[in-house]
Specification:
The structure is a single chain. Helix content is about 55%, strand content about 15%. It is an alpha+beta fold and about 575 residues long.
Length: about 575
């Protein structure tokens, strides 16, 4: 239009001519208004397309009127192409077709209407054909552009939708992952899902296989608040909307106007709802429900979003259920273990007092002035002393187990000369006379609780006597840096490599009871390892060259100082090497 006006000026077209200033003014006003119209939203409505069509007709009419001015008719014809391009780019097909048709008609008729002679037919045909071809080409090109723009817009909307889904999915997953229990997680989870779907109410029902019912997890979520509804369960035998979703394993919509519901939904006054089963490997865990959408009814898009949020929620719910079940089982096992430990401790203490009296009485009867004159009576007395001593050691083992389990092991480290200590310990072990061979240097010593060290040596020697009867037992010790290494070596059948870890387990028995030469609880080696580790040491089991087992106990020179504690209640029933007699 600017080019046409400039051409009119150069060609001295009278500015006072109405056929010039009237269309120029009308077209200029039209183009001045068009940029301020929000075409992106306007063209999505019929009114917007009508406005576009009227604007195009007004511009075409103005240009057609200008074309009646002979000096600038050629310039106006060029403007026709701009109008065709405009309608092709912004208008729909019907606007483009209508505008092109009107333009063709006015291009022929308008000059004649103002008294001009009809132009030659060849000129009219050429101009019309040119306009038609340009219109068709522009229509095809802009249609392709529109299609690509539509596809791009559709892809953008889909990407935004997926981005929103992923963000919401992340929020739900993070909410589930941050929780430690179902009670902590579910209200927050339902609240997030409810806000995402514009719901005013939401809740979860979990399956209780033991009772064959769905239990509402309280509190439920309602308009951003939590509402405690107490214990509410729905039997799976009651066929209703919620149980149908669970049993059919398919999401479903609910509308109070279309269905008759007398259960939970009716009691809560719900008008519209959407429920989805919580599935893990096609196994239903429960039902997630949202209800009463703020903006009306739930849609298919809402259902798709709901299902995408429910899938990870079901997985994490399953994990939380397993975690809570495992935690409950662990807690129960800990309680049972504590009850067992307490029982063993109480029984051991209760047995200890009368057993001490029995041992003392038997020791008194064994004095020369009181010993029975009859040989059979003396044998019975000796047998009673032997078995009572065995019972004493069993009770001490049980008490030791109790102290270790409760992390209440007393330690009283004192300097110990190992050469003397090993000799004294072996001397009081029944059946070890003449079988223990010590090769400990006289200068090897350490600071250690003598009771614990004596129990370690005694259990290892008794173990060797049990599995290598009548065989020599070698004991050696040497200092290496800040540690002392003590070895107890037997020459029996040894312990197979696959059983070496098992040998140190509690109540472990490496041989069938029918073949064992002596009884035992299977606590000996477990106590050895526990005491060694409690004093900061290590124990190792290897083969003895030529057959047998070698137990190596490595202790620091100042064993037990880091865990030094006293427990006056824990005292041996008899003397241990290195411990003063006052401890009896």
């Amino acid at each position: 239009m600017t080019l046409t006006s400039f051409g009119a000026y150069r060609l001295r077209v009278p500015l006072s001519e109405p056929r010039f200033w009237a269309p120029v003014l009308a077209v200029s006003i039209t183009f001045g208004i068009l940029p301020f119209i929000p075409w992106e939203s306007a063209l999505t409505r019929v009114a917007g397309e009508v406005l576009m069509g009227l604007s195009a007709i007004l511009v075409i009419a103005g240009l057609a009127l200008l074309s009646t001015l002979a000096p600038i008719s050629t310039l106006v014809f060029i403007d026709y192409f701009a109008v065709i391009s405009f309608t092709a780019a912004l208008g729909g097909r019907w606007i483009h077709f209508s505008a092109t048709t009107i333009l063709l008609v006015l291009n022929i008729v308008m000059p004649y209407a103002f008294g001009q002679e009809l132009r030659p037919g060849q000129e009219i045909i050429v101009q019309s054909a040119t306009l038609i071809v340009v219109a068709i080409v522009l229509s095809a090109v802009t249609s392709e552009f529109r299609w690509e723009a539509y596809q791009g817009h559709t892809r953008e909307l889909e990407l935004r939708r997926r981005e929103t889904q992923l963000e919401r999915l992340y929020e739900v997953s993070r909410t589930m992952a941050d929780g430690q229990s179902l009670g902590d997680v579910l209200p927050t989870l339902v609240g997030k899902v409810g806000r995402f779907l514009e719901a005013q109410l939401g809740f979860v029902l979990l399956h209780q296989p033991r009772f064959g019912s769905l239990v509402v997890v309280s509190p439920i979520w309602t308009s951003g608040n939590e509402l405690d509804i107490g214990n509410y369960d729905i039997s799976l035998r009651d066929r209703n909307y919620l149980t149908s979703v669970f049993l059919n394993r398919e999401p479903a919509f609910y509308n109070a106007q279309d269905e008759t519901e007398t259960g939970l939904l009716a009691e809560l006054g719900i008008t519209t709802a959407m429920a989805v089963p919580l599935l893990v490997d096609q196994r239903p865990l429960g039902v997630l429900v949202v209800a009463d959408k703020v903006s009306g009814k739930f849609t298919a898009d809402d259902r798709e979003m709901f299902e995408s949020l429910a899938a990870p929620a079901a997985l994490i719910l399953a994990q939380l259920e397993r975690y809570e079940a495992a935690a409950e089982t662990s807690k129960r096992m800990e309680e049972l273990a504590q009850m067992k430990t307490d029982f063993v401790s109480v029984v051991s203490h209760e047995l200890r007092t009368p057993l001490t009296s029995i041992i003392g009485s038997l020791a008194t009867l064994a004095r020369p002035e009181l010993v029975p004159p009859v040989p059979a009576a003396r044998d019975l007395l000796q047998s009673a002393r032997t078995q009572s001593d065995r019972l004493r050691r069993l009770i001490e083992d049980l008490l030791m187990v109790s102290r270790i389990d409760n992390n209440a092991l007393p330690q009283h480290p004192v300097p110990v000369n190992l050469r003397t200590f090993v000799t004294e310990t072996a001397a009081i072990i029944p059946g070890a006379e003449g079988l223990v061979r010590s090769s400990v240097h006289k200068d090897v010593g350490l600071e250690v609780d003598p009771d614990h060290l004596a129990r370690i040596l005694r259990n290892l020697i008794e173990n060797a006597l049990k599995y290598a009867p009548d065989q020599v037992i070698d004991i050696s010790a040497q200092q290496t840096g800040s540690t002392v290494r003590i070895q107890v070596i037997d020459h029996g059948e040894g312990i197979h490599e696959d059983l070496r870890e098992v040998a140190f387990e509690r109540f472990a028995q490496l041989a069938p009871a029918s073949t064992r030469l002596q009884g035992g609880t299977g606590l000996g080696l477990w106590i050895v390892r526990s005491l060694t580790e409690a004093m900061g040491g290590l124990i190792d089991l290897t083969d003895t060259p030529g057959g047998g087992a070698t137990f190596t106990v490595t202790l620091p020179l100042r064993a037990g100082f880091m865990t030094n504690r006293s427990d006056p209640e824990f005292a041996p029933l008899g003397n241990m090497p290195g411990r003063p007699a006052a401890r009896e």
